[in-house]
Design brief:
With about 160 residues, this protein is mainly alpha-helical. The protein has 6 helices and 2 strands, in the order ααααββαα. It has one domain: Arc Repressor Mutant, subunit A. A two-stranded antiparallel sheet has the order 1-2. It is elongated.
Length: about 160
């Protein structure tokens, strides 16, 4: 006889079972990604976000954060610099090294993209019941606290 783990199934009370939660969380993330990062590619957006979180990186560190190589990251930075989102400045520590910084235009772009994405999520949240929004907020706060404690999460942006 097969044993069924009921804690992983979806209960009959309308709440999500444990096995469904990762899919639901992924759907929320995908909803935010539906707002395109134009004029940037997804790789360029990842670099912009990394530079926003870690101001004043060198090329090698940025490449490591992106899981890329310095030559590919350098070309990506060339494109970001060409659209005015990135500044390359001499390093205060090593004259042979450059410091990469997000320009004011790049920061403005990121603020605007985040605002558009938040609005996309807000439009869905507005249709939820107050009890549903409260439960979602509680669950997401708990998730964030645990993920942050594990070193896998960040603060709200």
């Amino acid at each position: 006889m097969e044993t069924v783990n009921r804690s992983r199934e979806q209960p009959g009370d309308g709440t999500a079972g444990e096995s469904e939660l990762p899919d639901l969380l992924e759907a929320v993330v995908e909803r935010m990604r539906e707002v395109p990062p134009r004029p940037l590619s997804n790789a360029q957006l990842r670099a912009v976000v990394a530079l926003d979180r870690h101001d004043g990186l060198n090329l090698r560190t940025l490449a490591e954060l992106l899981g890329s190589t310095p030559p590919l990251t350098s070309r990506l930075c060339d494109r970001l610099e060409a659209v005015g989102f990135l500044e390359r400045l001499p390093s205060a520590r090593d004259r042979r090294e450059l410091t990469l910084r997000l320009s004011e235009r790049g920061r403005g772009y990121l603020r605007e993209l985040r605002a558009r994405r938040r609005e996309s999520v807000r439009s869905v949240l507005a249709e939820m019941t107050p009890a549903g929004r409260a439960a979602l907020a509680r669950g997401l706060r708990e998730y964030q606290e645990i993920a942050t404690a594990r070193g896998r999460g960040g603060g709200p942006r």
